[in-house]
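Hello everyone,

My group is preparing for a crystallization screen and wants a predicted model to guide construct design. The compound we'll soak is MGD. Before spending weeks at the bench, it would help to have a computed complex in hand. I've included the protein sequence and the ligand's SMILES below. Output in structure-token form would be ideal because that's what our pipeline reads.
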Amino acid sequence: MSTQKIEIENFDFTGLILKEPKEKAVGLPAIISSVKQAAKYMDPIDAFKLSLKINQKGGFDCPGCAWPDPDDDRSALGEYCENGMKAIAEEATKKSVTADFFAEYSVADISRFSDFEIGKSGRLAEPMVLREGATHYEPIAWEDAFKLIAKELNALDSPNEAIFYTSGRTSNEAAYLYQLFIRSYGTNNLPDCSNMCHESSGVGLSHTLGIGKGSVTLNDLHEAEVIMIMGQNPGTNHPRMLGALEKCKQNGGKIITVNPLPEAGLLNFTDPQSPIKMIQGGTSLTDVFAPVKVNGDVAFLKAIMLKLAKMEEANPGKILDWDFIKEHTHGFDNFLEDLKKEDVQHAISESGVEESIIIEVAEMMATNDKIIICWAMGLTQHKNGVGNIQEVVNLLLMRGAIGKTGAGTCPVRGHSNVQGDRTMGIWESPKEPFLAALDRVHSIQAPREHGYHVVSAIEAMKAGKGKVFFAMGGNFLSASPDTHYTAEALQNTKLTVHVSTKLNRSHLVTGKQALILPCLGRTDKDVQADGEQFVSCENSMGVVQSSQGILTPPNVLLKSEVAIVAEMALATLSDSRVNWIGMAGNYDKIRDAIGQTIPGFENYNERVRKPGGFYLPNGARERVWDTETGKANFTTNAIPHNELKKGEYLMMTLRSHDQYNTTVYGLDDRYRGIYNERRIVMMNIKDIKARGWKEKQVVNLFSHFNGVKREALKFLIVPYPIPEGNVATYFPEANPLVPIDSFADKSHTPTSKLVIITINSVI
Ligand SMILES: Nc1nc2c(c(=O)[nH]1)N[C@H]1C(S)=C(S)[C@@H](COP(=O)(O)OP(=O)(O)OC[C@H]3O[C@@H](n4cnc5c(=O)[nH]c(N)nc54)[C@H](O)[C@@H]3O)O[C@H]1N2
Ligand SMILES: Nc1nc2c(c(=O)[nH]1)N[C@H]1C(S)=C(S)[C@@H](COP(=O)(O)OP(=O)(O)OC[C@H]3O[C@@H](n4cnc5c(=O)[nH]c(N)nc54)[C@H](O)[C@@H]3O)O[C@H]1N2
Ligand SMILES: [Mo]
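Reply:
Good plan to model first. Here are the tokens for the complex, ready for your pipeline.
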């Protein structure tokens, strides 16, 4: 290994400016912000062309979030959104990272850039290799890169020494081919970003409702009487969801927001596609705001359910949906008995929400039948992440609010095809019927032993048991918990390979050798042997549709993810009977194979060509429960108690308004009034005063999980309306504090929203 010093973090302050947090989302400032971004980084004609095609039928799927598109009419302006435009500007940037860039800057030089600067260096242009002991990446021919990968993979003692990560932008076609290669090679080591994201939802929902996905459609949101949004910040992370919430309100629906922070997008929203509303001032979205303490959600939900149980006692037969409970559920008596053991006042105080608000929410739940609960990372990234989701399900089941119009579960996914990747078999714990189908269709013998998820993959590399790390997209180093630990794990491998569109810190913290394989993005044209190809993606509501890029790729050397997998398979597998070349030349052939392997994809090629695509089957939507009991299961989950000693705080790590996960678009968090700085810690003013501190004070943060001291140095205090005892920082700057061994029960999702820390001021 070379002796150059690679920086894992960048501590430079950029100049914090604080303003009042906003109470309104979107509107004109959002348009100005995205136009600025596009103008700065993109060719103006490209920007215009793309804005008309974004999320249109026959257009391309926005590489931003997984929010669904309307089934019927779509806005002529494109299903426009500020952060979608930023995601596109990031990918379709004019700048490119060529061999000259890598010749000029050593890996150590680049590691001294901030993540913002690394991202802004441009699109990756050609395959690069970092040879053992070298200080600089140098160009490598594609053929030689594949040979290098094949040599290292075939030299391992067991295929289980290789780890294949996936981020959630990979199309269905690329994901299917990728897992087919990995299983032909002989391992189920397929950790993915979902392990750090909605895994708790998948585990919680599968056990209770028999399907790891949500049950509602976009139309259900429009028709709901009550939508409760828990642990989610759609104004920033799913801006097009605000339009659906507005429609719900126009139809008379009510919205409850459960969040430690008063997030701007949920308070008030101005539709950027409606000039009239922009002048009138928009819709106030939230009717009831419940400011829970961090991880107060089980307590909050139990308090509501206790109130419902009490109302039912006073009006027998009137509050709970007994027909539904009797016909469709299992375990109700046990659940109720367990619930009643809980003291309502204790639940209320653990939730941090005032009793009057709990009563108001309980009454809304009791008097409306069409109830939807939406959630994202605020519920999943906790020790009790699975418990959080199961309590959401308990509440819906009590009211029969699932499997009917306007009601059900709505886990709002992150990456634009994270749900599709899982459907395609990107999973470390695949089910037997899926593997048996793969064997049958492709004449392979897929391994049965389950593989590593993200946390166990890091542990395996650290222990020297994971020797080759391959990533289909993503930024594993910065997205994973415990950044320094993960860095050591990656540096312990023989080879790290990244298939990427943009440069990121994972390319700098490498194994003995490293490869960067540059690929086409969502917005690029994809021409293969049989002509121009399209791919397909599954959105958050189980709709599969096509996506076709329209821009000339930034460099002729780029390959599609599908082509990279096929060529890697050809180089690595000596006796494969899979037609890799044929499938890479014409993606219809991959879709034919998917149609034969995965239920719900019959006639895939025909149905995906229909404008708007098709819905996948969803048992919970039809009240068909694919669970062990054949019914929807009630469960019991204890209220977690987070004991804080003096000087300890519960930290959640969040996204700012100017980032896409580890990609930093800009330095502002406009809605929260935090400008030009990311190394900040939001604190309640009382907590700040109690320590004798002040705004912009420089502090160091420490976590002490299981007796191990972890540190993240140099953060600036920002006074913020956050519950006392809770603090918030941005992801990924605070990831060094998230302990590798602190993860959710059953789902192994790192507890990125629940880190106990101490804070010291820097004198
Ligand atoms: N522009 C943009 N869009 C994105 C992304 C992005 O980075 N940028 N990321 C994508 C991805 S991969 C994902 S997974 C989603 C993430 O979407 P979100 O889950 O909305 O993202 P976070 O910033 O993690 O926000 C979590 C929210 O949960 C709240 N919260 C934290 N802890 C708790 C708690 O204990 N209880 C409750 N009730 N609330 C809590 C926080 O205050 C915050 O509002 O967005 C996707 N879309
Ligand atoms: N502390 C903390 N940690 C977290 C979270 C948190 O809330 N707090 N959130 C977690 C969540 S929800 C998630 S989903 C993960 C995200 O983890 P990842 O998905 O691993 O991270 P991203 O930042 O989305 O990955 C960005 C990189 O993907 C590459 N890329 C972009 N588009 C494409 C493409 O089309 N093809 C290919 N091959 N590459 C592409 C680019 O090179 C870019 O640098 O992070 C998790 N980590
Ligand atoms: Mo995510």
